[in-house]
Amino acid sequence: MTDLSPAATPQTPAPSALAMVPFVSVGDMMRLVHREGIDRVLRDLAAHIEADFLRWPEFDKTPRVASHSEGGVIELMPAADARLYGFKYVNGHPGNTRSGHQTVTAFGVLSDVATGYPLLLSEMTLLTALRTAATSALAARALMPAGAATMAMIGNGAQCEFQALAFRALCGIDRLRLYDTDPRATAKAMANLRRQGFEVTACDAAEAAVEGAQVITTCTADKRNATILTDNMVGAGVHVNAIGGDCPGKTELHRDILGRATIFVEYPPQTRVEGEIQQLDPDHPVTELWQVLAGQAPGRRDAREITLFDSVGFAIEDFSALRYLLGRVRAGAAHARLDLLADPDDPRDLFGMLERARPAG
Ligand SMILES: NC(=O)c1ccc[n+]([C@@H]2O[C@H](COP(=O)([O-])OP(=O)(O)OC[C@H]3O[C@@H](n4cnc5c(N)ncnc54)[C@H](O)[C@@H]3O)[C@@H](O)[C@H]2O)c1
Fold it and tell me: Which Gene3D superfamilies does the UniProt record give (predicted)?
């Protein structure tokens, strides 16, 4: 554990225990994933997400707060139960990779509801990729056709390998068909996924990628109503895991597919604004994923049904991921401690604490 507070001086004594907040850096997160093994992390995250989805009514929920600009969006995603409060800061800027920036970056906080004090501050760029993949695979486990072994992956950017690994760890899928408009992205994913032991085929068109696939993951980034899948590309019995349509005006599927599919969502008030279903009437029937997991609503009903997980990413998934991470930190996972909270000796003498740090003379 690293202590990141500056050296103590007579004016600024070492911060107290209450001042310090555990911080999981990107380096710490990478060490955690390698120490635990990524399959185990994905399964543990899925278990935490499932456990929280099963107690869905206990949560204080709200659609995320999105601040849109021409090139992207910055979002705050809060969720709380009676004990813990979490939020994530996340951006989505599809043009970013052209300047060497990532499309999605994130960090987040988990706090103690009783005092309001943060318990954990963490990087969440890697954690978002892991939790998104775990959520997708959790949904697919309940919705995909029995015996599915091949997945088409359209969009081979940052999220791609995480999705593939989660689908293998939770759903047993180990054959992949990749397509991206940028062949360099497909080449990158091919190399990474072959090293992970997948059977991978690179395809030169989305139409070719979906051939023979029982699951189709769309994971593209483009700030427009794109048509990654047309109606004729989605055959009977397929499960569609649609990840990239997650903002107003940013969708991936042709509307006709939505008319033929049974649609599963995270939180309807958010998905109706951000998901594929923004293309439909506001009362178009959808099923909430948590209800399927809780046995309160049916998942896939027959082998010919087209199921669609219209994923946008919901705050409870981040809450669950932070809850998992706090458990690992408390069990000794690598982290630093930040001098984040002012902690005066007399809680009402914040000013006195500041004055004692006044430079002499
Ligand atoms: N649902 C969620 O919970 C969730 C979570 C994280 C990210 N996302 C979304 O997932 C998407 C992918 O994120 P990322 O971090 O992998 O982005 P990325 O920019 O790293 O990768 C996106 C890839 O899509 C490709 N692409 C763009 N248009 C395409 C098209 N028409 N056909 C095929 N490929 C195309 C790009 O070339 C790029 O390689 C983004 O839209 C992001 O907002 C959703």
Answer: NAD(P)-binding Rossmann-like Domain, ornithine cyclodeaminase, domain 1
User: Which of 218, 233, 229, 241 shows the shortest CA–CA distance to 145?
Assistant: 241
Number of CB atoms found within 10 A of residue 26's CB: 14
**DSSP string for 37-71:** -HHHHHHHHHHHHHHHHHTGGGSB----EEEE-SS
Q: Return the residue whose CA atom lies nearest to atom 1 of ligand 1.
A: 312
d(CA 173, CA 198): 9
Neighbours of 35 (CB within 10 A): 12
For residue 156, give the ligand 1 atom closest to its CA: 39
- For residue range 115-159, list pLDDT tens digits in order: 999 999 999 999 999 999 999 999 999 999 999 999 999 999 999
SS (H, E, C) 140-162: HHHHCCCCCCEEEEECCCCCHHH
Closest CA to 2 of 31, 22, 19, 18: 22
From CA 192, how far away is CA 356, in angstroms rounded? 54
Respond yes or no: is residue 28 known to be catalytic.
no
Q: Is 105 a pocket residue for ligand 1 (Cβ < 6 Å)?
A: no
Cβ of 132 below 6 Å from ligand 1: yes
Report all structural domains of the chain as residue ranges with CATH numbers, in order of start: 2-126+316-356 (3.30.1780.10), 133-314 (3.40.50.720)
Q: Is the CB of 66 under 6 A from ligand 1?
A: no
Ligand 1 touching residue 185 (CB < 6 A): yes
Distance, CA of 346 to CA of 73 (rounded, Å): 42
From the CB of 244, is ligand 1 less than 6 Å away? yes
Kindly report, residue by residue over 265-286, the tens digit of the pLDDT. Answer: 999 999 999 999 999 999 999 9
The ligand 1 atom nearest the CA atom of 314: 3
Centroid of ligand 1 to alpha carbon of 223 (angstroms): 10
Residue 340 Cα to ligand 1 midpoint, Å, equals 34
Distance 21 CA to ligand 1 centre (A): 33
